[in-house]
Amino acid sequence: MIELKNIDKDFITGDKEINHVLKNLSLTINDGDFITLIGSNGSGKSTLLNTIAGSLKPTRGEVIFDDIDVTKLKDYQRAGLIGRVFQDPNFGTIGDISIEENLAIALRRGEKRTLRWALKKENLKRYQEHLSSLNLGLEGRMKEKMSSLSGGQRQAVTLLMATLKKPKLLLLDEHTAALDPKASIKILQLTDTLIKENSLTALMITHNLKDALKYGNRLIMLQEGRIIADFSKEEKEHLSVEDLYKKFDEDLNTESAKQ
Amino acid sequence: MNWSAVLQFIFTDAPTQGLIFAIVALGVFLSFKILNVADMSVDSLFPFAGIVSLSLINAGVPAFISLLIAVALGMIVGYINAALHVYLKINPLLASIIVMIALYTPNVIISKGNVTLLEGKNSIFMEVNSLFNNMIASKLVLLVLFVLVFFVAVYWFFGTELGLSIRASGKNDSMAKANGINTKKTYILGMILSDGLVSLAGALYGQMSKHFSADGGRGTIVIGLAIIFLGEVIFSSKSFKLSLLSLAIGGLIYWLIIDIIIEIPSFNTNYLNLTKAVFMTLVISIYELKKKLATHNNEENPTFMERLKRKIRA
Amino acid sequence: MIKSVTDHGNIVGTSDAGPTSKNIALFKEFAGITKIGILYNQAEPNSQVQKKECQKACDDLGLTLVDGGVTASNEIFSSLSGMIGEGIKGLFVPTDNLIASSMQALKETLIENKIVTVCADKASTDKGGTLGYSVDYTLLGKTTGKMAVRILKGEKISSITCSLSDSFPLEINEEFFTKTGLSLPDSLAKDKKI
């Protein structure tokens, strides 16, 4: 179970102004949750993800993984618990080295790296099996450089890398936004499959409201750094995209009325 | 023209210089290609190691021990170089320049301008010579041994989990951190190894030439980079193994070219610097051209051969 | 710095200018030397002057001079190798700090290639050269000291004549001859400083 307790995240802009990106945000992610997170630009979605991952430190509040307070831990110290897939396919992998080398790096995420040989034969077999399940023909191209793959293929491998060692939380930051529609669908299906097969807990940011309704067991709406809605699976089933838009507007009006 | 002297010079100088500078290139490869920093401290570190090594031998320390000490000191310098960046947040290039300037002082003080191996003292080459009784053979055998050992060691190291994590940090800091790698530590470790190798080369060079001036390292980083690019142009960096091999061969070819140029009648060594600059420009331009052609002929823009292959497959 | 040894205003002293032409003439004592090289620091005006003197002496004596000027210590070895490749049989080393500090390291190469190396200062000859008329620095120092005494006693500076050294002992490095197998020409054996 992952908990966010009273998270504030402030950024100081150039003119010494303070931008409150996350405002007293609390969230409990239960084991097995597949949460889709939506919100307009600037609502704080990426900031939230980065705070959970440790790339950003909250101004106030705690991040807790299974009753362990990880707030003070740096991103690389928390990495063993988290699998991440970024929006940019080039971000989660290293283009200059081979596919198998990328997988080898992911396999040791969070573990101490020693002088053991990185590409052990037993592991190479594992990689082949995993890659075959993607049905992209990559299992025969393991020694090729990652840069020879297309964007969609790279994201697929990144997904694999994020789940090779089972993470406590899978963070997906609009990971299909930079792909063409065909690849986008494939990656989402793959995401869904991987999460189900490995019983993963996941948090997925998406701009696509249809996908947000279609996937996952929980939908969270973020606006101006606050959670304005948290729909369960049953509630989601009865919602449409228009309903979501309405909810955003409602909230905006309520907020401006307050001011 | 004294052809026998010319040939003797080329065939004894090029291999020995080539092998030593292959080690320099290996060190510079680590900092430049893996850590993405042009390590300017090399120009002072190379003579530093040579001066330390020779001074120690003159003071009575056995040649091999003096080599080890010079390398150890070089690794400490590497740590300082990295620490300036990692802990004091100084830009890595500036950090290396600071170290380069800082080393001027010990270089001059220890060597008092320049240091020469005293009569009666032995370099490791002279010690090995007791087996072969042929200085050229001794130098070549010892240098080939060092090159083999260290190239294989570097290849092995970067194939380990730790080594791979250093490579990852250099190529994509965020991805490395997301995979649990402490990129500060890997940078420091990489720099220690890089400077250690340059120091090894410097100490070997000093012991081989039996002489080192405090300013004798000028242009070392340029030679290292020239060899790296020359290697890439000739071999293309298709794999890590091939990249390393290209350094060794590149070193030999580089010095062969330079030594041939030196032997051209009326060639004044002043022109050597301009020649090296022109050479570098040529090599790097060809390298960039090759890169451009390669990316042009990828998945989306297949070459004629690729299209043919695909037609056959389908 | 000054116009002549007598017309020099308020600057006076001694000069360690050596007998370049006398040194170049030494090469003619050895059979078979027609091409010589010169190693010097191009950035040093003092060496530039000696190089000019050397060139003139070579022209007078019918010797070919190969210019091996350098600007940094790490060019010295390449320059020497290049000159050896061009076929020099002799080498002239003027009084030059840059080259002097490398003489010991060059010794092996010079002996191996049997290059008769004439050095303008004793230290260089001893460290790796063959022979040369050098400036006697001790004597020069004494002369300078005497000049200083005259000035302190009240003599006007402009009336003192600058002194050039006129004592040039011939220094010989025996090691070169024993190791190369060449022999010291008889004509020089009598000039030898004992």
Which terms summarize this structure?
heterotrimer, A: 259 residues, alpha/beta, Rossmann fold, six-stranded mixed sheet, four-stranded antiparallel sheet, 9 helices, 10 strands, B: 314 residues, mainly alpha, 2 domains, two-stranded antiparallel ribbon, 13 helices, 78% helix, globular
Structure at a glance:
The complex is a heterotrimer of chains A (259), B (314) and C (194). Chain B is mainly α and 314 residues long.
CATH C-level category of the largest domain in chain C: Alpha Beta
Under CATH, the topology of the largest domain in chain C can be stated as Rossmann fold
User: How many alpha or pi helices of chain A?
Assistant: 9
Query: What is the CATH C-level name of chain A?
Result: Alpha Beta
- What proportion of the residues of chain C form beta strands (DSSP E)? 5-15%
**What is the averaged pLDDT score of chain C?**
84
**Count of helix runs of chain C:** 9
Residue stretches of chain C low in confidence (pLDDT < 50, at least 5 long) are none
Produce the secondary structure layout.
The complex is a heterotrimer of chains A (259), B (314) and C (194).
Chain A: E1 2-12, E2 18-29, E3 34-39, H1 45-53, E4 60-65, E5 68-69, H2 75-78, E6 82-85, H3 99-107, H4 121-133, H5 151-164, E7 169-173, H6 181-197, E8 202-205, H7 209-214, E9 218-223, E10 226-232, H8 233-237, H9 241-258
Helix pairs in contact in A: 3-5, 5-6
Chain B: H1 3-34, H2 42-58, H3 63-86, H4 92-111, E1 114-116, H5 124-132, H6 135-157, H7 161-171, H8 173-178, H9 183-209, E2 211-213, H10 220-235, H11 240-262, H12 270-296, H13 304-313
Antiparallel strand pairs in B: 1-2
Chain C: E1 14-15, H1 20-28, E2 35-38, H2 45-61, E3 64-67, H3 76-85, E4 90-93, H4 97-100, H5 103-112, E5 116-119, H6 122-128, E6 131-133, H7 137-152, E7 163-164, E8 170-172, H8 174-180, H9 186-189
If you had to describe this structure to a student in words, what would you say it looks like?
The complex is a heterotrimer of chains A (259), B (314) and C (194). By secondary structure, chain A is an alpha/beta fold. Chain A has nine helices and ten strands. Chain A has helices at residues 45-53, 75-78, 99-107, 121-133, 151-164, 181-197, 209-214, 233-237, 241-258, and strands at residues 2-12, 18-29, 34-39, 60-65, 68-69, 82-85, 169-173, 202-205, 218-223, 226-232. In chain A, helix 3 packs parallel to helix 5. In chain A, 40% of the residues are buried. Chain B has 314 residues and is mostly helical. Chain B has helices spanning 3-34, 42-58, 63-86, 92-111, 124-132, 135-157, 161-171, 173-178, 183-209, 220-235, 240-262, 270-296, 304-313; strands spanning 114-116, 211-213. In chain B, strands 1-2 form a two-stranded antiparallel ribbon. With 194 residues, chain C is of the alpha/beta class. Chain C contains nine helices and eight strands. Chain C has helices at 20-28, 45-61, 76-85, 97-100, 103-112, 122-128, 137-152, 174-180, 186-189, and strands spanning 14-15, 35-38, 64-67, 90-93, 116-119, 131-133, 163-164, 170-172. Chains in contact: A-B, B-C. The A-B interface holds A 53, 55, 74-77, 79-80, 82, 84, 91-97, 101, 104-106, 108-111, 113-119, 148, 150, 161 and B 157, 159-165, 167-168, 171-172, 174-183, 298-299.
